[in-house]
Amino acid sequence: MAVYAYFWSDEQGESVDKVQQHGLTCQDWQYVFENCQLEEVSRSSDRLIRIANTPDGRRLCVVFEWNGACSRLLDSS
């Protein structure tokens, strides 16, 4: 079983701000990341995208990149 640690930044323009700009919560992002049904590589940026349905039925994708042993939020929608 994978174990993930998330390091959210409240600074303007950083991770929490990016998630909220899309009407999501950090919990939404984490759910999609941990329960992905599909992982693809973006054709435009070569970054990873994870896609999943949330418990309330929304289909979301999160864009991220691995940074060594960590991942970094880039965008979500």
The end-to-end distance, rounded to whole angstroms, is 26 Å
- Give the H and E element order: HHEEEE
What is the alpha-carbon Rg in Å? 12 Å
* Domain unit count: 1
Outline type: globular
Mean pLDDT: 85
Poorly predicted ranges: none
Q: Would you count the extended β strands for me?
A: 4
Helix fraction, binned, reads 10-25%
Number of helical runs? 2
Topology:
Blueprint: H1 15-21, H2 26-34, E1 38-41, E2 48-53, E3 59-67, E4 70-76
Antiparallel strand pairs: 1-2, 2-3, 3-4
What does it look like?
- With 77 residues, the chain is α+β, with helices and mostly antiparallel strands.
- The chain has one domain.
- 21% of the residues lie in helices and 34% in strands.
- It contains two helices and four strands.
- The chain has helices at 15-21, 26-34; strands at 38-41, 48-53, 59-67, 70-76.
- The protein has a four-stranded antiparallel beta sheet.
- A hairpin with a 5-residue loop joins strand 2 (48-53) and strand 3 (59-67).
- The protein is globular and about 30 Å long.
- The relative contact order is 0.20.
- The model has no long low-confidence stretch (mean pLDDT 85).
